[in-house]
Amino acid sequence: MKTLVFQLLTIFCISTALSQTPTFRVLDAQTEEPIPYATIVTGAGRGTITNEEGYFTLDPQTLNGKGIQLSCMGYQSMKLSEGQLAGERTFRLVPAAIQLNEVLLSDRVPTADEIIRKVRENLPVNYAAGSTPFSIFFRESEYMDFETLEMELEKASDLDRRQLESAREELRELSTDIEESQAVKFLDFNGTYLRDGDSSRLRVGRATELVDSKRDFSLEEIQERGRRIILTHLDSSKTYKVKTGMFTIEKDLSPELDMEDSPKSDSTETSHLKGELVDLLSVAGLEEGGRLFGFLDPGLYKYDFLKATYFDGNYIFAVRFAPKKRKARYAGTLYVDATTFAILKTDYQFARGREGEKVNLKLLLGIKYVENLDRGTVIFRKSENGFYLPYYVQKEYGNYIYLHRDFTFIENSPSRKKVRFDFLLEGGVRQKQSLLLTPQDPQDTPESLADLPRKVWVQKLDSYEPTIWQNTEIIAPLEEMKNFRVAN
Question: Span of the secretion signal (predicted)?
Fold first, then answer.
C-alpha cells in the first residue's frame, strides 16, 4: 500500500511539474557556456531546439512517457527520462573527442572539393522534391537604431513666430524620443505550411505581437508623425499640395480631414506572413536558385577541410567555404554526414569586405541604402522516410539607411503660402527571423488549407505571456523578449 501511494505521489509530482511548460537550459560540460541550436527530440519527427542562450521549453504532452534526447554538433548525445526532466532544469553535454581515422571510409582523407562534389551528386537522393506539410513556429524580432534624426521647419510663410517655435519644439521632442527609443518589435505565429511545386499555402493558428505603439518607428510612421505635427499648425480651412524634391506626392491635402485618426488594425494579411515564411525558407533552398545550393558552386567558392566531428551517432565532415569570385558574397561552414554526404547544418555570413545590395542616390535624391548584415544557420534532420528536411532556419540581416528629404506644403490659393519641412534620418534596421518546422503526415493535413482566410488576427501584447503558447512546440524566447514591457 505504501509503495502504491508513493508511486501515485511520484506520478502526481512529475505531472504537476511538467504541466507548467518548464524552461530548461543546455550547457557545455567543460566551459559552462550555453549551447545554442541543440536539438531536442521528443518523438518521431517531433521536438524543439535551444535558443541562442541555450534555453528550450518543453510541452509535456509530447513526451508520452518516452523522455527526450539532446543532441548537438560536436557533443555526445544525452537521453533524459520524464523523471529527470521533473527534477532538473540544467543539463550539460560533453564534447565528443574523435580521431579522424574513425571517420575514414577509405584509406585516405577526402579533400574538401571531393566532399562538395559528393554532396552535389547526392542532392536528389538526400532531399525530397515532393510536397511535405509542416507544423511551423515563426518568430521575427525587429530593431531600429537611429544615429541621427533631424526634423526642422526651414521656411514657414503661413506661420507666425509663436507657431513656428511651437512646431519646431514639437519636432525636436519627437526626434529626441525616437533617437532614445531603442525601438523593438516581436512577432510570433504558428500554423500549418504546405509547399506543393511552385505554390504554397499557410494556415495560421495563432499570431501575437509585442510592440510599444508609442515606439513604433517605421520610416513611414516617423515621416507621418512629423507631417501631422506641421498639419496642426496649418489653416484647417485651406487645402494644400505636398511636394518633395521634384515630385508632387499629394494633392488637395486638408489638415482638418487628415488629422482624423485612422483606426489601428489588429489584423494582417495572410499573404504577408506567408511571404515572410517563404523568404526565410529560401535560405535553406538546395534546389537551383536556393541560397544553400549557391554555396555548393565551385565556380564561385573555394573549400577547405576543417575537421571531423560528431553528431547524434554520425561522423561529420566540417568544410569551410569562402568566396573565389567577386560575385560570391558569403563565407561559412558546411557540416556534411560522412556516410550519406547530406548537409546537416550550415552557418554563413557576409565574407570580410563583402556587402549586399547597395543604392547610393545621396546627391540626387537624398537616399543611401547598404545591406551590411546577413548571417544565419540552417539545420536539417533525417525523416522516417530517409529524406533530410529543414528543421530550423534562422536569418539575421540589417542595413544602413540615409534619408534626407524636404517636404513643402503649398497652400492652394493665389498667395501660395509655403511651409518647408526638412527631414534627415541616418541609422540602421536589424531583423532576426527564426523558424522551427515539424513534418506532418500528409493524411493529417487539414483539407481546409485549400480555403484560407485573407486576414489573420494578431493579438497585441504588453509583455511576453508564455501561457499563450502552452502545449505548443515553440522556440524559447531570449531574455530581452521575456523582459519586454510597454512603457507607461
Answer: 1-19
